[in-house]
UniProtKB/TrEMBL annotation:
The keyword Oxidoreductase applies. PANTHER family: 2-NITROPROPANE DIOXYGENASE (PTHR32332), 2-NITROPROPANE DIOXYGENASE-LIKE PROTEIN (PTHR32332:SF20). InterPro entries: Aldolase_TIM, NMO. Pfam families: NMO. The keyword Glycoprotein does not apply. Keywords: Dioxygenase, Flavoprotein, FMN, Oxidoreductase. GO terms for molecular function: dioxygenase activity. This is 2-nitropropane dioxygenase.
Length: 349
């Protein structure tokens, strides 16, 4: 018995398990390990420059000849160039955090690239399905990073009822029980962030992984104080401080961070404010939040790349509270599929 689903057929992978495009985390090593294990690995490109993305795609292709994907920001200034790069390199899947324009979906599809945007509501799924998306990933509120308020158990059926294209469930998955449950709902597979972050092949520093592993089920919090949008992160001292800081102090802190980020990246202040404004997405944001939005990549990098558990923001799903090991990616994927198969067999499916 194998778990042959609309997702495995659409993308040409062995297992209906997706490793999502987590900024600073989903690099060539993790993505190629997932591809080799038979899942769909997705490179995170929003935190990569164009040359870094070129190099990352080349490295994945050198490590594996299995299909993989790239997560794009449709509103990036060089989004068109990145789409051309995916086409040139024959990347199998384009995933998007924000809905891509209709023309961008059409161009990718015309060149045989499977388009899988992430959505947080049934009406977003309807919109991208009407624009030609091949499938959607729906992320419930349990999920790590930017997230909504509705749990996967309710969001997933609402999206399944709304669209006819394959739906991949995300937010709170980590084992074969979740995979079997998602398939029972009618999903075509599951996508996971936090579980793959906590794998042997993930390049997140070991001391940061240990901080994740020490968390219980209440170890995360959804905060708007990082960039103005609801963001599920570990409840660290820094986040507690951000949560309790008043508006004026928040602005001073954000400005100080902005200056530090500028020193590291060489980005001009107007460019940073533009970045912050780009993240507004129609949300009401204070100036302090706009500045913080510009800082978000730096705060995430400080935690996830530099290992600054004191000064960094660590995005995480609630599922972190149920994870206490660092298996290989192959053990994660194969273990989940075997457990799901056993459950479905026991249930007579
Ligand atoms: C550390 C981290 C970074 C993330 N970065 C991104 C990102 O850059 N783009 C994106 O679309 N989603 C991002 N996400 C969300 C994940 O892609 C995924 O939807 C989510 O982790 C699923 O929930 P789970 O953590 O319960 O598996 C991130 C999640 C985490 C934990």
């Amino acid at each position: 018995m194998t778990l042959d689903t609309a997702l495995t057929r659409l993308v040409g992978v062995r297992h209906p398990v997706v490793q999502t495009g987590m900024g600073w985390v989903a690099g060539p090593r993790l993505v190629s390990a997932t591809a080799e294990a038979g899942g769909l690995g997705i490179l995170a490109s929003a935190t990569m420059t164009f040359p870094e993305l070129e190099a990352a795609i080349a490295e994945v292709k050198q490590r594996t000849n299995q299909p993989f994907g790239v997560n794009l920001r449709a509103d990036a200034r060089d989004a068109g160039d990145r789409v051309d790069l995916l086409i040139r390199e024959g990347v199998k899947v384009a995933s998007f955090a924000l809905a891509p324009r209709k023309e961008m979906i059409a161009k990718l599809r015309d060149h045989g690239i499977v388009v899988i945007p992430s959505v947080g509501a049934a009406r977003h799924a309807e919109k991208v399905a009407a624009w030609g998306a091949d499938a959607v990933i729906v992320q419930g509120g349990e999920g790590g990073g930017h997230t909504g308020g509705v749990a996967t158990t309710l969001l997933l059926p609402s999206v399944l009822d709304a669209v006819d294209i394959p739906v991949v469930a995300a937010g709170g998955f980590f084992d074969g029980r979740g995979l079997a449950a998602a398939l029972a709902y009618g999903a075509a597979g599951v996508a996971m962030g936090t579980r793959f972050l906590l794998s042997k092949e993930s390049t997140v520093p070991e001391e940061v992984k240990r901080v994740y592993l020490s968390q219980g089920l209440t170890g995360t919090v959804v905060t708007r104080r990082v960039d103005g949008l609801p963001h599920r992160v570990l409840r660290t001292d820094l986040v507690e401080r951000l949560e309790s800081t008043g508006r004026v102090r928040g602005l001073v802190q954000a400005a100080r961070n902005a200056v530090r980020f500028r020193r590291i990246t060489g980005l001009s202040l107007p460019a940073m404010v533009r970045e912050g404004l780009a993240m507004k997405h129609g949300n009401e944001m204070t100036w302090s939040q706009i500045l913080m939005a510009a800082n978000t990549p730096m705060l995430l990098r400080a935690g996830l790349v530099e290992g600054r558990t004191d000064a960094g923001v660590l995005a995480s799903g609630q599922v972190v509270g149920l994870i206490d090991d660092l298996p290989t990616v192959a053990e994660i994927v194969e273990g989940m599929v075997a457990q799901a198969e056993e459950i479905l067999h026991r249930l007579g499916g």
